[in-house]
Write a structure and sequence with these properties.
The protein has about 240 residues and is mostly helical. It has helices at about 1-5, 10-35, 40-50, 55-65, 70-80, 85-90, 100-105, 110-120, 125-155, 165-175, 180-200, 205-210, 230-240.
Length: about 240
């Protein structure tokens, strides 16, 4: 932990601290919504430690609370968490630790820890940022979930405090910049349309999974390889110029 303080500057630590604080408040929303929806307190508490993935946990709780199948909810959560596969490939070797430490390092992998790690210029700073954010989220997310669960057990109408709107608002804030890209906007609108059309006909949870087919709109066609004649044109032009 001391090496983290020595490696990262104040600005980097402040950014990580603010991010972990935001995670704590989102955890409040998660725990309160889970308990107010009828789940016992231990469910969000255990999930927040063992899963440690806010989007998947919110999705699981929301689908089951709406009457959906726990299996469909678990599959939806696994699908959302599949983004960790490219995360692991993007991180340089050694960031998540070695040997047994790598188990914990892999567990604390999340959107925030990966983003902060990749933003650093060298391996020691990448490792320090990754572990500082990952361990911070590991403390703040379960802490917020438990406290939020206690609030939810006392205040059953979480909408009175706007806690049910906190997570969608955060997600919207995260994606609004990406929606400036026309292709991303088309994919998002197509996914929303698919989910809206499928909701009256499919069980809870399945419209969300079906909406992910809109991601196909983001797949780029491979660029055509230059023909042999096109590749020879610059060389021919250079010969003519020299002559």
């Amino acid at each position: 932990m001391r090496s983290i303080w020595r490696t990262l500057d104040r600005h980097g630590l402040a950014d990580i601290g603010l991010t972990c604080l935001a995670v704590f408040f989102i955890g409040l929303s998660y725990g309160a919504i889970a308990v107010a929806s009828g789940f016992p307190l231990w469910v969000p508490a255990v999930l927040s430690v063992l899963v440690l993935a806010g989007a998947s946990e919110f999705l699981f709780i929301g689908i089951v609370a709406a009457g959906g199948s726990p299996i469909a909810a678990a599959l939806a959560g696994l699908l959302v968490n599949s983004r960790h596969l490219p995360y692991g490939l993007a991180l340089p070797p050694g960031v998540t630790g070695r040997r047994w430490a790598r188990l914990l390092g892999t567990h604390v992998m999340n959107d925030e820890s990966v983003v902060f790690a990749l933003a650093q210029p060298d391996l020691p700073r990448k490792r320090a940022a990754y572990w500082a954010c990952g361990l911070g989220v590991l403390a703040c997310w379960p802490g917020g979930a438990v406290l939020g669960g206690l609030i939810g057990s006392a205040v059953h109408d979480t909408s009175a405090f706007g806690l049910d709107a906190m997570f969608p608002a955060v997600i919207l804030a995260l994606i609004v910049k990406d929606l400036r890209d026309a292709r991303t906007l088309r994919a998002a609108l197509a996914g929303a349309a698919i989910a809206l059309v499928a909701t009256p006909f499919l069980p809870a949870g399945l419209p969300v999974l079906l909406a992910l087919t809109a991601l196909l709109l983001l797949v780029r066609a491979p660029a055509p390889e230059p023909s042999a004649s096109a590749a020879q044109e610059p060389a021919a032009a250079e010969v003519r110029a020299s002559s």
